[in-house]
Write a structure and sequence with these properties.
4 domains; six-stranded mixed β-sheet; alpha+beta
């Protein structure tokens, strides 16, 4: 613990020195938010940020730090939505290129001291005390409202009470009682159930932090139509989240399902396929983009979405009302082989495009790097490249000359050594030669034997 305290003390001393120097220079110590009026940054300029989280807030917010050296978990004083408050850094330093759509930028005013932390604790105690008094006054006035939380704003000069109610509430008597007891500026805000869950934070049924309290800035645009579009069972115990409303994650994949439905026929409609089969659609499989069709001959076949040709209008096609037997032929998917071949061809084209783009990108990056080199180095590089090109060309020319000469020599030797037609039989001569070699080597003995005879 002593080493950690020493590191913290050193970092605070360094930050205080940086703050004093920046105040003198008036460059990096900015207490107000940076807007379009006082912005001195240009597009593409790299800026350093950290994320700060305040007590009572489920989300963290980015803050510009300039040349300060901050570490994870350090307590700072910064402007939040509720006013100046003590927060802690819950991220490491990261850099982002500046763009105008990032405005306004928030800045950290100073490092939090012990007095600031103590004042924050006292404000928290006051909030809890005021919350209990407000709850007692709500019970006294018999109001159908649930108090969620209390906030101090404008440096403790104003108190905001957040509550939930099923309908509009007449809280004029409550306001009079609160003003008489607290002697402060008071504001009552009615929020929705989703806002309460987003402000307090919780864990969803998926085991992760709630989307509305972690990263979603706009939430609540969810309807039952999205659940029907995804073929989900309307079981509200599973579709509803912690707040009691439909889950926000239903809208994440709704666009994909709606695009797939455009390719598919509607259930119960009369259609015709490219293979010539006509019938009634029994079931749709959105993820695999397939559908089951009951044909007019009493056969249930499975087709891909590409096989869908057209849908019949009313009175254009008569479908039989009754079948003696219905055979299931969904084991084989009609048009699946054609679809796979088409996808493989498209995949090869995409790979060729990606390879071409990668090659182009590599050439452009190499040329861009060469532009940043000094003039002397670029000329030397160009000279070396030209030399290498000349050497490569000469090597190719020599190789071509050698290959042509070798081909000519082979053709000439083939002409000289070609067999000539004659009456002699070379193969017999060779046989005689071979027979001579097989005779005994001692020729004198053979002559003596002949004389004896």
């Amino acid at each position: 613990m002593t080493q950690i305290q020493e590191v913290e003390d050193k970092s605070t001393e360094q930050n205080n020195k940086v703050e004093e120097q920046s105040r003198k220079k008036n460059k990096f110590a900015v207490k107000e938010d940076i807007t379009e009026d006082n912005c001195k940054f240009h597009d593409g300029q790299v800026l350093k940020f950290v994320r700060v989280r305040f007590p009572g807030h489920a989300k963290s917010y980015p803050f510009l730090i300039g040349q300060r050296n901050l570490f994870y978990g350090q307590k700072v004083m910064a402007m939040s939505d509720r006013g100046m408050a003590v927060g802690y850094i819950n991220s490491f330093e990261y850099e982002i290129a500046f763009a105008k759509n990032m405005l306004p930028l928030r800045t950290i005013s100073k490092m939090a001291t012990e007095e600031d932390i103590q004042n924050e604790k006292e404000n928290y105690k006051k909030q809890k005390e005021i919350e209990t008094t407000c709850q007692n006054l709500i019970d006294k006035n018999n109001l159908s409202m649930n108090l969620t939380h209390v906030e101090f704003t404008q440096f403790g000069k104003k108190v905001v009470f957040y509550f939930i109610a099923p309908a509009r509430v007449d809280f004029r008597g409550l306001v009079k009682d609160l003003v008489s007891e607290l002697r402060l500026r008071i504001e009552l805000r009615q929020i929705s159930v989703r806002d309460r869950a987003a402000s307090q934070g919780a864990l969803g049924p998926c085991g992760r932090e709630l989307c509305c309290s972690s990263f979603l800035s706009k939430y609540g645009n969810v309807s039952v139509k999205m659940a029907k579009n995804q073929n989900l069972t309307l079981n509200y115990s599973k579709l509803n989240g912690v707040c009691g409303q439909l889950k926000c994650c239903l809208q994440y994949e709704d666009e994909v399902y709606s695009q797939k439905r455009k390719k598919m026929p509607q259930e119960g409609s009369l259609i015709q396929t490219h293979s010539g089969d006509s019938g009634k659609v029994r079931k749709i499989y959105l993820l695999t983009e397939q559908f089951d069709l009951l044909t007019e001959k009493g056969r249930v076949k499975r087709f891909t979405a590409d096989q869908f040709k057209k849908s019949y209008k009313e009175g254009e096609y008569k479908f039989p009302h009754r079948f003696d037997t219905i055979s299931d032929e969904t084991g084989t998917v009609q048009g699946l082989s054609e679809l796979k071949s088409k996808q493989s061809r498209q995949f090869e084209r995409d790979i060729e495009k990606i390879g071409f783009k990668a090659k182009k990108y590599a050439v452009e990056t190499i040329e861009g790097i060469s532009d940043y080199l000094p003039a002397r180095d670029r000329t030397e590089d160009k000279a070396e490249i030209e030399k290498q090109q000349l050497l490569a060309e000469t090597k190719v020319e020599k190789f071509i000359d050698l290959s042509t000469s070798v081909v000519e020599e082979v053709q000439e030797t083939a002409k000289v050594t070609a067999p000539v037609k004659s009456s002699n039989k070379p193969y017999r001569k060779n046989n005689r030669h071979n027979n001579r070699n097989r005779r005994p080597k001692n020729n004198n003995n053979s002559k003596a034997n002949k004389s004896k005879e």
